[in-house]
Amino acid sequence: MSPGTPSVLSNSFFTRNRDSGSGFSELSQVIAVRISARPALELIRELQIASRDSKNNRSKILKLLEDLSIYFAVEALNEEKFNSASVIGKNLSATMSAFLSQIIQLFELDERKNTPYLHYFISDINLNPEDKHNLALVMKREYATRVTLYQKAYALRSLSRLCRLNRTPAEFSTLTEILNDVMKNFGQPESIAVKRNLKSLLGVTDKDKTEKLFLLRTALQTFKDFVHDPNVYQPYMAEVFNAARNRDGETARDAIVLLSSIASRTGKHNESFSSILPHFVITRNALMAGALTNQISHPVSVFDLSKFNQNDLKKNTLLPCSNPEHVFARFHLARICAHAIDLPRSGFFNEEEQSLGEDTAGGPKFKETLNYLLHDEELTVFFEAVKTASQRSFEYFTDKDVYQQTQMILDHVVSRICSSLKKGKPQIQLHAACRAAGFLSTSFSLFLSRVESSDSTTSRGDVAILKNTMRRLYQKVEDVGLGYDCTFVRLAAYKCLVWREDEIEGIIDRLKIEIKNNETLIPFHLHEIMSAMLSFAKEQPRIFKHFEEVCSYICITIPERVDTEMLIGMFSSLIPTKSRTREQNEMISSFLTMIFRILDDSLTGSKQSLELSLTLYEFLGEYANKICDEPSLTERNILNTNHDPELKKLKPNEVFKRDELWDIMVGSVKSIVLRFMHSTLYNTPQIRVACLDGLTKIAFRSLDPVRLYIYQFFSSLTQSDDFGISSHCSDVTQLLDELYHLQQHFVKLTTNENVSDRDLVYFFDTHEQIKEKISFFCRFAPSFLPLGLPTKTYLARGFNAKKREMSM
Length: 808
Fold this sequence. Notes:
By secondary structure, this protein is mostly helical. The protein has a domain at about 630-808. It contains 37 helices and 6 strands. The strands form 3 sheets. A two-stranded antiparallel ribbon has the order 1-2. A two-stranded antiparallel ribbon has the order 3-4. The radius of gyration is 34 Å and the shape is globular.
């Protein structure tokens, strides 16, 4: 806990209500009695009275601030605010305004014990811009006038929060000035002693050093808050590296956390980052290890590990080029080192991500350090190293292990994960081990996909060895993870095993039983499982049938536990945005079959099944043209088509007469259109309306014969009032009539060699008028109406002609 932080804000004061699942909803008896006896408004009034003679009422003021801090913490956890002290519009209420003024006055008291409470209050009150500006001036004065460094640190922390909420040039300038002062005075190696002196050896706390470190750590945490703005932290990178070498574990941790955030945001690091890497030395002599540890300024090279037996490698010494004593320092150091692993060249990563992983400065140093961190005695560091390396590339695990050159890194990783997966181990350890195995399994499956789809240098024998190693991991996860009496452990185990292609059918059968019988699985858990399987199916299209099986089972069997927003978001990711491959077309066909199956079997009469069906119909209506890739014939489709080369020689008005291109009987959109027509006639009123809207959107975004087919269907419905939808159909058919007249005019334009500016302007104006009317029926209207191949070109000519008319 930071110096001066009130212990009352600790979570230990609250008891979790496990039965209701509402978080910290029950308070301890002590706090409940104190709150019921002293209402907040009464405390505020007593504080105002006591502050009139602040010098003689120091203890009373401190006691009132402590009681108020409890009330603020409780109200924040319950997401409630006392009415008379709440925010009214953009302004504070009179009570809260007076309380804020009282807090500002108490800053002048210069009472060290009050400082944490005062800064806590101003961070919890919703402030308007004027109050924020006044408080920023107070924080600037606090930093400039206070003698104790920990009070300066609190002022810096509060000013940082004000700048994050409302970044004005004046306040931000004040923040940068303070940061510059802190890093200038305490960011140099000689500013804070890094060697252990006599006081530290005797266990005596050096108060001055502690306060300096607290202020330096506050500055590092402020830099992390503004990691999105390189101009804030870039001038002080040297000081940050110095902080990473500090003997104080928490200071080094905060510096490495900042460097990890910088590397994660930029996607790479430069050579200067290698200066923080610790040097690992293997020795059997404890005195030698101690002597090497004190050689801070002289890095020691790594010994030849092949000379040592595995039993001799029991202790490794970390030289303090960075201070890795704190477990979370090594945790974030693993994240930094992982960015040195080059991303594989695969469609799974975009070009920008691939470029970020290439030519990383000091790459071998970072990879070697990451290898050492995989042998860290703390499992937290080990699991994070496995996770970050897996997210980059599986090829890293095929390198030789730094401790034993005769085996791969993968052998050590699998052995350690398996040794962590024992039934007698703590639940949190088993869950973390299954999660690490899941990341490794995902990376391995993507690796196999790359090997199969490219001319990889990896031989079949090497792949067989890797498969045998991973099979040992899968078996351990299945034996321990799936049989453990904890939902979260089993969920992590399933997310790992669904990437196992050779045994996926058996895993799917067990997964369906788990989903049906385990009512503690919430919609988010089910979404995670389906997302994992869909990611695998995108890399291996032959796996899509298993995703289809699980998704259909969940939607049909337990629609009440399906989050429709997450489901539609997952379905939307299936729609290709670039040119399609044969595998993608087959996947889209299976995807439509799956949705139709869900629509057929999910209508059980329950409210949840009706909402799910309605959502799926709305999704199909909105994305039907993109799913089927049959909107209008654009220039790109013509130039990239694999049909008859004679097609390029045809005139635009002749292209649409080719039955092999535009016959609805062979188009994939036919199945959606016929489904919508059937549901319009025979379904619930809500679904009938959704199908009408879907057909309307498809008609406005398609060419003939799709549009004509829907037009004829709507025309037949306008003549009958039996369905109560004739008015809607009448409006749509009238608008389609206007669209057909515009298309006839467009055909005349394309067949006429001499087109006047008046005809072009008329075409452009009519097009925009119809498009504006269509926007009432379609949430996302097409960028330009589907009329033919050169529509976009003639619209541009019409726009230029109108522009010339207006300029004359």
